[in-house]
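User:
Care to share a sequence and structure tokens?

Assistant:
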Amino acid sequence: MTLQRLGLAMLLAAAVPPGLPPAQAAEAYAMQAARQPDFRQMQRLGRTMFFDPALSASGEQSCASCHDPASAYGPPDGKPVQPGGRDGQALGFRATPSLRYLQNVPPFTEHRFDDDVDESVDQGPAGGHDWDGRAATVHEQSGLALLSPNEMANANADEVVERLRRAPYADEFRATFGADALDAVAPAFQWALLALEMFQQDATQFYPYSSKYDAVLRGRASLTPQEARGLALFNDEAKGNCASCHPSAVSATTGAFPAFTDHGHIVVGVPRNRELPANRDPGFFDLGLCGPERRDLVNQREHCGAFRTPTLRNVALRQAFFHNGVLHSLDEVMRFYATRDLEPQRWFGRGADGKVELYDDLPGVLKENVNRDPPFDRVAGDKPALDAQEIADVIAFLKTLTDGYTP
């Protein structure tokens, strides 16, 4: 099946409504500099807004509905995607990412040069918020969620601002940003996004660095033998090779604790999630950087199927994994990494001819983009890079990345 036969350009254009207008983050920061609203007031207001379901078209969905504080600001359950939309029942095609540890995510670039690895090597696309990196900042990401037809589903900024004018905290909004803050739609919308952005700068909530592993890095705790074995396997380039995308070491250049992501975009070739309504159409494919929600890289075929590498911090709290929420436990995820190409019948569907279709969530020639670095370097007849005990060891280590550790 060829890319041409799929009519990819038409698929991408038809998959979602016309592109959402990007939030003008720079304009909002200029407004902030000119008016200098109090930071703590903005944070308090942003928190109130974050938990307010009245900001959604359905009146039932707040930011916290999908980004649950008890789940490290990730999804509250094992649903592949969280329902939303104007009726509260719409289902998109992407799992909810965690909002923790996003404070150092750089804006998207097609060419990353990482001075913690080898700054002379182009490591490809990296950065940006959301699975496809299309939002440059938390500010812009907040705007996308408020306007997405599958999320909070406001038709436009006017609708958001009207909800704010009716909110019980409208006076608090004006006290924070000025008496005229809700008068005109454009600045009011930017003030709203700024408040949500400032709330997400609350370190205790969004980047507490309070896991057991952080305590180990501070010299206040020690890994158990099993956790230590798991870390060694995690870092071993011939075994788990996890650290190639999820660095586990303190930054050699800045001394920062690891975010457990290099912010890169990679084509893992995960199975198609047939539970998603969008995937009932055999011609629909979520191609990450190539669309359908991102439009500027549609013709960059080498990027198709790539999604941003998420942080592994608090990963043990998740119940739906990968961009499409297709797997539901760390054991499943690790076994997929270990056996993707050795036991394809375990992971992928079958085509019309009855044969297993490798990387069945990618069309035709785009399967060539799938990553084949270890542990994906095995071929039929090889042993998996990780056996059952080693998988258990890596999972034991991953559980040390959950925030809230008490020695």
Notes: The first strand starts at residue 265 and ends at 266.
